[in-house]
Amino acid sequence: MVKLKFYPEGxxxxxxxxxxxxxxxKAAIDSGAIFEGKVMLCDxxxxxxxxxxxxxxxxxxxxxxxxxxxxxxxxxxLISKVGKRVCFRVVGYQKDDSGKKVVVLSRxxxxxxxxxxxxxxxxxxxxxxARVTRLEGFGAFIDIGCGINSLIPIDMLSVSRISxxxxxxxxxxxxxxxxxxxxxxxxxxxxxxLLGTWEENAANFFVGETVVGTVRSVESYGIFVELTPNLAGxxxxxxxxxxxxxxxxxxxxxxxxxxxxxxxxxxxxxxxADSALKYAVSSGIIKHWRYSPKDADRVVxxxx
Length: 304
What we know:
Helix content: under 10%
Distance between the termini: 22 Å
Structural class: mainly beta
Number of strands: 17
C-alpha cells in the first residue's frame, strides 16, 4: 500500500480552497480531495463557517471532528478553531433558512481518511512532520495530520531536562518527531532521538572555550546548564542564578566515558529567543538509538 502524505492543519498552503464558483465546488465533491480554509465563525450551534473564496462553507457540528458524535471530543475543540485553518472534504449542498445554497463540508471525513490511509500505517520509529498545538506541564500536544492530535510527553522532548515544554517548543511550531509507541490506538511521539547523541552534540564544543548556555536547574551541588537540547553540563555554584537564565560558561573539561561536561559560569547574558531546533536525523525510520558513547559507564538508549 502506498502511504499518502497528510499534513498538519495550516502546514501546506497548496491545500487552501480558493473556489471561483460552484463548478469548482462540484469538482471538489467529485474528486474527494482534502482542502483547507480559515474558520470565520463558530455559530451558536457550534457549526463552523469556512471561507471558500467566492462563498462560505459550513462544517456541521457533528462533522467538526472525529469524536464529536461519540462524545469523546468536547466542543471547545470546535470553538478554538475560529481564525485558524482547518481541513475538510466538500460533501454537498443544502439550503439555509433563507433559501440560500450553502456548501456543506466535513472535517470528520478528512480525519477518518487521514487515519485510514496514513496514521494507521505509521511504524514505530517513523519520523513525521507535526505542528505544536498546545503546551501543558506534562507534554506537548501535536497535530500529526488533518487536525488529529497526539502527545509528546515532557521526558521525550529532549535528553536535557526541562521543567515545562515551553522551554523547548512554542505554539504553532512545525517540528519533526518519531512515533514512540502505539497502545490501543493511542499514539505517543518522541523528539529527543532526533536531536543527536551525546557525542554528536559534544563534538561542537571544546575545552577552553567560553560559550552561551541556559540554566535548567540549580541544585545544592551545582548548576545544570544546557548547551544544546540534548547536552548539558554541570557548573560550580557561584553567583545566584535561576532556571531559564542565559549565561556564558567556560568549558573546564569534557569526559565522554562519564557523559560529563564541567563548566564554570562566567557571567549572565541578555535573554534571547530560542533558536530553531537542529536535527541530527529528520527522515526515515529509527529502530535503535543510543545516546551514550560506546565506552560510557552507563547505556542510554531507545529501542523502538
